[in-house]
Amino acid sequence: MSETKKQFFSNKICRFCNDDMSKVYIDFFDVKALKPLISERGKIVPSRISGNCAKCQRILTRAIKKARNIALLPFAVEH
Amino acid sequence: MRSYQSVLILKPDIDEARADEALEKIGEFIKSNGGACLKIEKWGKKRLAYRIRKNRFGIYLNIYHTLDSANVTDLESKYRLFDLVIKFMVLRLTDGELERALDTETAEDEEGKEGEEGSAKVADKEDKDS
Question: Is the residue at A76 inside a domain?
Answer without folding.
Answer: no
